[in-house]
Each structure stands twice: as C-alpha cells, then as structure tokens.
Amino acid sequence: MARDFDGDTDGADSETATETASGPSREQGRTVRNTIERRGIVGLAVATIALLLGIFYYPVATVFIDSVLVDGRWTAQVFVSILQDPFYFGELARLLSGEPVGAVIESIRSPDRRLGVIGFTTYQAALSTVASVALGLPAAYLLARFEFPGRRTLRSLTILPFVLPSIMVGVGFVATFGRNGTLNAVLGALGLGQVNLLFTLEAVVIAHAFYNAPLVARVTTAAWESVDASAVETARSLGASPFRAFRDVVAPQLYPSVLMGAALTFVFTFSTFPIVLALGGFQLATVEVFVYRLIRDLEYAEAAALALIELGISLGLLYAYLRYEARHTVQSRGIRPLPRRPLTPPSLSVRELLPRMGLAVYAVVALAVFVAPIASMVLASLSGPEGLTLANYQFLIDRQTTGASFQVQPWDAVRNSLLFGVASLAVALPMGVVVAVLTTRDYRGRKLVDAVAMAPLAVSGIVVGLGLLRGLVFGVEIGGSRLAVGGGLAIIAAHAVAGYPFVVRTVAPGLESIDHTLVESARALGAPRARVLLDIELPLVWPAVVAGAAFAFAISIGEFSATIVLASGTNQFTMPIAIERFIGRRLGPATAMGVVLLVVTSASFLLIDRLGGDDVGF
Amino acid sequence: MDRRSFLTAAGATVSVSVAGCAGLGGNDEASTGASSTDESTADGTSTGDAGSADETLVVGTYSAFVDSPSTSPGAWVKQRFEEEFDARLIWQTPSNEVNHYIERRNAGVDIEADMYLGLNTDHLVRVDENLDDGLFADVGDVAGQDDIKPGLQFDPDGRAIPYDTGYISLVFDGTATTAPETFDGLLAEEHAGDLITQNPASSATGRAFLLHTVKQFGPDGYLDYWSDLQDNDVRVLGSWSDAYGAWSGGEAPMVVSYSTDQVFADQNDANMAEHQIRFLNDQGYANPEGMAVFEGADTPALAREFMSFLLRPEIQGEIAVRNVQFPATESADLPEDYAELAQEPPEPVTFGYDELKGSVSGWISDWERQFASN
Q: Where is the segment annotated Disordered (chain B) (predicted)?
C-alpha cells in the first residue's frame, strides 16, 4: 500500500532527472511529466483506496461480521434483540418490538420515560455539541477578526486539548472543578459558595467541550479567514449595515464549517468512553462502555452489532451534514481576506466596545475551561509530597537511562510520536486532498461515498483495535506461510487512515466553493487536472489545508488503540502509551510525561502553522 | 481525542512487517507481542551464534508486573532467573492480557509465549467459556507447590497455580471520616457520597468489590444492596486510577483499593492517617494471581522450572514486596516489618472457579443494567 506512494515518488524523481536533460529527451521528459500530471490523481486515488481497504475496511470487517455470522450461520437475530431491548433503546425498543404506537408515545411523554443507553448517549452528545459550539465560536471570532500580539501562536495552540489523553484531562479536571479545586477556591474567595461539578453530566459535557470546542474554533477560523473581503465591501457599499453584511455575506460562508465542527463533535462525543467514566461515573455509561465490556468478555456478536448501530447513527448524521454542505456552498473566487481589527478599541463607541467586552467575558470562561485544567496538569507534574519538585521529571530521566529494555523509554516515545506524526501527515495530506477532489465532483451518490470515507472517524476505537489485531497482526495464511503486518510502517498507515478524514473535511468545502469557471478555463487551456489542483485550487484553500494538516498530525499524536496493537515492541511505543504505562499510585510520573507531550505537540503545531504560512494564497 | 480509548480489546503484534521497521525498532528483546520469537521460529537454520544452552522462555504477563512507575518485580526476576538457569527470559505484555492469547488460539495463530503470569479466576472462566480446546496445560510437576496456601488454589482442573495474592479493601482518609465496619454501614446517611469504587467490567478492584457484595448478600440480594448504595451516592468510576486519583484529590474520603495501600504511602512519605484500611465485615476479598504453561509451549520444562523458582521462599518474599502483594506460599521470606504496613484481613473470602463459571457474566451484566438504566 505504502509502496504505491513510493511509485509516485519515483515518478517525481524521474521527472526532475529528465528536466535537466536536453534535446529529444527534454521532449520525452515533458511527456512523462504530462502523463504524471494526467494520471497523478487517478494513481493517488487507487493508492488511497488500497490503503483504506487494507488498513481499515478489511480489518474492521473482520469484527463486524461477527454480528451477522454467529456459529457459522447468518442471522439478524443479534440486531433484532438489541433493537428490542429497552436497556439500549428505551421506550423506542417497545415500538420496535411491536407495541402499539399510542402506548409508547404516552410513556415517552411521561416523566419517567427511559432513554436507554443509546438514547442517553445521543442526549449527552447533543448537549456536548451545543457546549462545544458555544465555546468554540467566540474563539473563532477572536482569532479570525482581531489582531493582537500572539494571535498566530494562540491559533496554532488552539487544538492542543485535542491530543490530551483522558487521564491527563481527568487530573486537570479534578484539580480545577473538584471539591477542593481551583474553581471552588476562586468562588470561595469571591464569597460565591461552592459547586460540586464532578460526577455529574455537566462535568462530562464540559470535558467534551474542552476536547471539541477547539475543533469548532479551528475549522470556523479557517473558513472565516477564507471569506473574501470584496464581497463584504460590495454589500457595505450597497448600503448594508455591518450586521446585515455579516448575516447575508459572511455567515452563509461560515455555516458549513460551524456545522461540520458540530457534526464531528457529535460523532466524537457519541463514541466517548474513558472520560465519561473518569469524570461522570457508571450511571452515565455510554454505548462505547458496553462495546468495550462486551469485547473484553469476548461476546463478539453483541459487541459488533452494538458498534455497528453506533456507527450507523454517526454516519447517518455525517451524511445529513454532507448533504447540507453540498447544498449550501457559496461560490467565491476570493483570495483577499477581511482585514483584522485591533483588539484595543480604536474609539470608545458602543459599537467598538460591545464585542470586545463580550470577548473579555469569554476570556474568563476560556480561562476556566481550557487554561486552568492544563495549568493544573503542569502543576501536578511539579508536585510531590513536600511541595514543588522536579522528582517526576527525574523519574523520566532515570527511566531513560536505567530502565530495562522492556520498559517504556520516554525519549523513544517522543521520537516515535514525532516520526509517526510527520510520516502519517505526509500520507494523510495527499489522501485527504484526493478524496476531497473525488467527492466534490458531480456524480450521483457522491455524498454517500463521502460519508463512507469518513468512517475512520466514527468506528469505535475498540473495534478498530481488535480488527487490526485480527486482520493485520494475525495475518492471513497464504500458501502455507502466514503474511502478517505490524511495526512502524503499519502504524504510520493506521495513523494516516485515522487522520485523513480531517483533511477531506477541511479541504472539500473550500474546493466546492471555488468558482468552477476558474478550473474550467485552466483545463480548457490544456492544464492537466493535477496541475490545476496544485496551482489554482490548493492555493485558494490553503488555510483549510493547513488546518487539516494540523488535525491529522494531532490525531496521530493522540492515537492509542491502533498503535499499541501494531507496535512490534516497547521501542515503538508513543507518548500516550508511555503516559498510560506511567500511571501509578502517584500521578506525578504520568503527568510529567503528559507535560512532555504538551510541550512537544505545542512546538509541532507552531511549526506546522509557520511552515504552512499564515496568509491565504501563500 | 475521545476515540482514543484507553485500552483496546486488542493486543500486540508480530515480527513480520510490510517492509521491515526501517529504523523504527526491529528486534529488541522485549516486546508487546511476539517479535521476540524471531530466533526460535527461524526454522532452525539460524543457530549460528550462541549455539549452546541458551534456552529462551517467553512469559506473557500484565504490563504493571514489569513496568510500573514505582516498583515492579519483572526486571529483578529476569536477572535472577537468567543468572541461575543460563536461559533467556523474555517478558511479553500484550495490552489486552489473557484475551490476546485467547484471540490467537481462536484465530488459529501460534502462541509464541510459553506461559502466562497473572491469571485470576475470572480469566480462567473466560478461557474455558470461549475456547473448546484448552489454552493451558496441566501444571504437572512443579516443586514447591505444596507450600501454597490451600485457600488460594483457584483452578480445580490443576492448570494454574498461584504465585501471589492481593486483598481488596476500603482505603479511607482518617482525617475526613471513619469508614464503617460493615457493608450496611456504607448505607448510612453520614456516608452519603463518601465511597468511590470502579467499573467491575474494566477494573480488578471494582470487580472484586462487586463480587464481595454478591458473596455477602447472595445472587438474589446484591442488587438490592446496590440499589441502596446508589441511593447513597456511591461513585463508580472507570478505572482504578480514575478512582484513586479522585480520592487523592479529596472528592470522597473512601475508595475501593488494595489492603497494601500503606506500603505505597510509606514509600511516598504520606501521612498514614490519610491512608487507613477497612475490611468490611472483617473480610477482605482475595484476588490470587496465578501462572500456567500454554499448551504447545516450546520449553515446557523450563517453564515449570521457572514456576518452581518463583515459589521459592526468598523469591516469593521479593515478588510480594516488589509487586506490593502477599506471597502465595506459607514459607515465604518476608521482611519483618512488611506486615506492619501490608494488612491481611481477619477473614479472606473469594469465589472459586466453580462458583464463578456460568454466573459471573450474568452478575455483572445484571448490575450494569440496574446501575446504568437511563
């Protein structure tokens, strides 16, 4: 699979080789180059599909098939019994098991109705989505519309929460929102009493917002930065008030991104797992908790069926979003972004002050939700029985220098995370761009293809792990010998598969909104498809490409379940695995490793944004 | 992200990779999976080096046994064993532990480990309920077996023998509360919201606590007890570390954990008043850990020698101290002061294999359905 990409690189090499030649071979070189540019996209598409089939769809299918193939017989019974089980489907299950509609509606309206695990999972995901959007949009507004020192750094660091292992978030949240936490200390000092947030649905929703509001913020910022200033200026010159210009010109270009952030947030929080039990408790158990338990107890039929139902709901929602996105693209040829306003008000008018005061209030909330938990993690890593200490970092150094070879070494974990991150990014970017191109062409059912291509975001991580074990690590018997796959390259491929949907989702809306006449004229002038993509389309959507790259990298850094399955030894472990291994009675060593992860990924995000350039049309 | 689930239902890995590991680490001797067996599976041709004795014993175990931030016995055991037996010991720590080997057997893939260390009664039940053919061989002739405390033997079919045991108890902060002496005491209003335990499906301590309630109230009564406990705001978190972390942060004064808690507290110079142990009804739920040889092991004789080695008095004592558990044998050499900090219950209780088989999944599933009914 990765070999296919090598083939491509070879092509590029021969291109440069022939470029320097002269006479007839230069002619030949041009032909080769044209061939590559003409076939480039097709080649990449084939490679992408092969990689997806090998590293994702086939392994996952080895698990899902257990839901319909039980003891060698095909059956739908497993699904039927889940659908009819009130524990999973609440009152709806009674409908599905044939009770009269009237009676069921009656009980749904009664206060002691049952949601079932799936109903409850949906409910908490919906609440989490609302909270994430509410906390994400003001950040996008700030980052896209205002200029202030450190803006670029802040924008780069927005997605930091995205990579944090749940154990770190747990530590940060207990220290911030716990009974003896920072929040209560501040409230107490202000004489405002106490709040008991932990072990409630609210705590879980806030934690989900901690993870996902950055996602909403980042994709919306990218869209906002791509809004063409001339359209707004035209509206203003035609007499539209600033508000109207926003509502009629800017907002329609933001809706798709906001909704995308919301849709992805829903999908992620729908399959949430460790954080719910860490901060909420078992009474708030979600579908994924039961998928995990069933797989652990080797009850594969029910586990697979439940995970498929979970996937169906997630993909259904993504499909609905994609249909919306396709219908609501605003075409533009814009490359001149809106000018940013200074954060310090130029005058003391209400119009200038009001938005800035709103942002000040938001800053206080953001401080509590995002900054305080992360600061608490750092503080925890520096705390020991006798106050501040570097002992936890000393532990990391000791483990590096004296640890046995079968123990996790911190530096190896950092190195592996970076290697896997960079390599998988190099694979995920072309994959994502090519799928974005394929799904923005006009053909029937393309949104269905798009939704299926998003499956790596929506399939239960537990199922992916088991699938990779069965499908790749155990391998298949071919002619008496066993072909199995594991190790570094497989990890890179798995990370690329997990991250590429982000590239698709950030790049596709941009491609869709590019004025088609631009592409058509270039093609009419004889430019091959790949050249048009590289010279015209990608530069126009560059902020989206960079945002997608940052997410793909973040996914790789945070990935756990596929990595631990595919790693061929402790020396292939990554930072999240090291953190998990370092959890003990005291949380110090694990949090110290977590801070290493924070620092390494922060630096990486800054670098990605710098390399990607800041401005449109870079 | 959220889908970065903390533990997957899948384990480790294999030596063959698409195109090698290209500098990302090939053959180190420890592995999460089976890469270690390169030499033993290289169809006998690559015997050039060493040539001689160096037999290799591959032992599957859970990761904390060889790699935990405080102490773990793995490195010490490996060193002592290799010195004495002129053999090589390789630890394998698949992330989903015993399930990894059940999966391999189910898929018809070779099991490259010779034995497993860290089996408990639940694991054996799971193995037997999911595999028609055996996964483990009869324990056979292992010197030192007779020293094992009779109450700890948990395999009626004689495959697994215990090498240590833990007791699950309450740990409480004596400066904030005094834990009740009985299960019923946990229902008192003064202890509302005071107890944190763990999901029985994903945590050994949580499972032990749930099983202890089944032991106490019977399969017909434990759900009623839990209903009252839930009314009294018991917290059931995901993992032991979730629970212990929240307890350490002062979210509640009591947590379900191990009765050796003070050993750790002492290592960290903590205030002992904040680390008190309570055995409810004077009982502690025993969680013996056992070892067994895989059927079809390459070096079964060496595996049995290793098991005898682990049962020797001096090794038993050292494992107990380094694993912060209790020895499985009567004859273990323990440091004099170990018992001061590591507390044993007046009355150990546990469910045997026969009681758990066919019942344990149902007990947990019924509990889940009651506790998480939304």
A: 28-53
